[in-house]
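Hey, resending since the last one bounced:
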Amino acid sequence: MQKKVLTILLVLVIAMLLVAGCSKKESDTTLEGTWRITEMVEGGEKTSFPKEVALSDLFGEDEDEDEEYGIDNDDEDEEPDTPDVMVTLQHYLQLKDGTIKFFGEISYGEKTWVFLMDEGKYTVDGNTISITYDEEEEEDEEAEAGAEDEGEESEEVTVWTYVITGKTINISSPDEDDDDDTSGMTAVKVADSVVAEPVDPLQFLAELIAEILKNAPES
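The structure tokens again:
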């Protein structure tokens, strides 16, 4: 009888250890790593990801973004060179060793491209993340005088507050245009390998257009 009781107790202890081990494995409260953004809120407007978007909405309308991706749209009357097709958009962010990186992922058909969109430096204080970006400002007076424009570096600081529950992170940040409004995002932890091999944005565009033309119906 005593042996039977001991056996039952041993089985219960093993079961409890297994449950505790599984729970610990599923929980990931580490800030550092790669996060797949599932929802973004900006100016009170909520966007869920992945999202189906027209390619022309991503490139060709925002001059700053066009310059970032090397797209020249000086002639506003010209039709955009990029075919207007639907693609799937996904965003990622990665925090590692004091560097934060923002990645974009575009899927079309069976092809998927990941590319680096922006990066900066970050520090953590409690549940607050402070992100800095280095920006080079041109000096108009020196340019007009014909002097070499060395530019000035200024730091733009973005402050986030975050809460991690398991493999999900919720981030909030005051809206830049309205102190009473709050922007933010929700993301889930994924493997670093998802964004391990980003392609050059121009290479991505060239390959995407080639893929679109290959799949286009013959006229």
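Confidence is low (pLDDT under 50) at residues 22-26, 137-149.

Sorry for the duplicate.
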